[in-house]
Amino acid sequence: MPLKFSPPEYIQRAKAEYKKGRKEEAFELLQEALRVYPDQCVDFLDISSAMHSADGDNDLALQEAHQMMKRCPGEGKGYLRAGKLLQGRFKDKKALSLYKLGLKSVPRRNSHYKELCQMHDRLSMKIGPKVDPLRNVPLEVLEMIFLNLSYKERLFCLQVSKTWRDGLSQAQTLWRDIELLSKSKRIKPGTVERLLPRTGLINSLRIGTNFLSRSARSCILSRSHQLRSLEVSASFSDWQTFMSDMRSVRFPNLQRLTLNSPNMNFSDHAVYSLLQHIPSLKWLDLNATMELDRSIPLPSPTFSSRELEAFTIRHIYCPANDYLETWLNLFCLVIPNVKLLRLPSVNGDSLPTRFLCDLCPLQRLEYCELPPGTYPIVPPTVTFLSITDLVVSEDGYESCLQGDMMPNLQCLRVSHADVSLEALRRILHFQSPDDASQETHIKLTEFVLREVTLCFTSPTNDGNPVLQMFQWKTFESVEILILQNGDFFGVDDEAILELTSQASNLQRVDLTNTAITGVAVRALVKNCPKLEYLCLNDCRYVPPDAINLARKHVREVSSKINQW
Fold this sequence. Notes:
The chain is α/β, with parallel strands linked by helices. The chain has a domain at 7-127: Tetratricopeptide repeat domain (Serine Threonine Protein Phosphatase 5, Tetratricopeptide repeat), CATH 1.25.40.10. It has helices at 7-19, 23-36, 41-55, 58-71, 76-88, 92-105, 113-127, 133-136, 139-146, 151-158, 162-169, 191-195, 214-222, 236-247, 268-277, 324-334, 421-428, 465-470, 493-500, 518-527, 544-553; strands spanning 177-180, 204-208, 229-233, 256-267, 283-291, 310-317, 340-343, 364-368, 384-388, 391-392, 411-420, 429-431, 439-441, 446-455, 480-484, 508-510, 533-535, 556-558. The strands form two sheets. It has a 16-stranded parallel beta sheet that branches. Strands 12-13 form a two-stranded antiparallel ribbon. It is elongated.
C-alpha cells in the first residue's frame, strides 16, 4: 500500500518528478493526492493543468480546469486557468464569458477575485464595442476640448472619419479663428474648402494667400463681417488679387491688420486706401517697405483715421527727400489719435522726428535700426520707449533724450545697441522742477537691456557700469527687469546685490546668459517677495541648489543651458 503524504508534500514530490523528466510518476502522484485529499482538489488539479499546458497538451489542461470549476465553483483558480488557456487559443469571447461566470460565482472575499476582475476588464476593453466620443459626449464639451488644439490640428481631426468630420463641422466656434499661414502635407487638398460652407462668421484670420485657392479666399472673406483680427502673408504675385478681394468686402469690426511681405513695397496711397476702407482699424502692422510716391496726389487732409491707435512699419523708402517732411506733416493729420508708433529709418538715413511733437496722445514709441548720429525726439506724453539697433552715445543726446523731456516714462527698452553710462543717466535723471539744485529720477516700472554694450565714455572712469547704474537708486519701483547677455556689460553678483537692496517690487526678472552665481539668486529670493518669474537660461555659474531654492519660492523658474 502506498505511503500517505501531506498535500504540500504531494505537490513538492510531483514537481520534483516533473523536473527530472519522470512526468508519468508526477501525474500518478497528483491522481493519488486527489483520491486521498478530495477536499483540496483545486490545488492538485491546478498543478496538473499547468503541467499539461507546459507539455503542449492544452486539451487535457482545459479539461482539468473545467473539473476545478465543477468541483469547486466558488474558487477563482479554475476560471482563471480556463480563461487564460482559451485566450492562448485566441478564443477571447469564450474566455470573457468564463470570467463573467466566475465573477458571479466567486465570492468577493476570495483571494483570486481581484485578479479575476482585472482579467475581465482588460479583455472587455480589448474585444468590447468601440465607443466613439463624438457619439456620447455633448457638443459643448467637445468644443471646450478641441479649442485647446491649433487650427491645423483640428483639420487633422476632420480626417479621422466621416463621423468626426460631420460632428466637428457642426461646432462653429472651432472654426471662427482660422490660421493657415503655411502648407502642410498632412492636410489633404480640399479639406478647408469642404469645411468653409459649414463655417459661420469668422472672428480671427491668419492666412497665407498661396495656401488656398482664390475661391476659398473669397469664401473666407465673405464670412468676415465679424472679423476683428486679420494677418496676411503673401508673395508678390498674390497681392494684387487679394487686395482686390479685400476691396469687395466691408470690414465694419476689423480692429487689427497685419500685412507680412518683407520683400515688397507698398505705396503710401495703398496704406491710405486701406485706412479709408477700414475705418474701424485700431492697429496696422506693415511688415514691408512703404514707398512714398510723389507722382500720385496726396489724399485730402480732411480725411483722418481717428480710430487708429497703433501703427508699426518695417522700412520707409522715399525717392525725393524734400517730399518726406510734407508727407510726415500729412501723416500726423491722418493718424491724430495714434498711441503706439514704431519708426524705422528712411533710405538708410535718420527719420525727421520733429513731427512727433504734434502727436499729443502718443504713449508708446519704438525706434528701430536708426543709424549713428540720429537724435530721436520723445514727446512728453510717452510712457513706453524702445530703442533698437541704435548707438546711444553721450554727445548729441543732451537736447533730445533727457528725463525732464519725458517725465511720464515708465518703461525703457534698449536692444542691440551701444549705450554709454552717461547717456543713460541723462535719460533716467533730471533736475527737480521745484529745486534746481536737487536731482530726481524717472520712476520706471519696466527696464530692459537686451544684447546691449554698456560702457563709459570717459577713459578716466573705471569699474562695473551696471553696478554704478544700480547705485543711482532709480529702480525702486521697477517690476519687470530684463538684462539679457549681461556678460558684455557687467551683470554679476555685486550688481544684483545692489539692485535687490532697493528694488523690492520686482515681479519678473530675466538674467539670461549673465555671470551671476547662487549668491545673486539667493538675494533675489530673499529680498524680492513679489517675484513670480525668474529666467536663468545659460547662467552657467548658478549651482543646482540655488535653482532648487528659487523653484520653492518663485512660481516659474527657467534654467535651460544651451550646449554649444
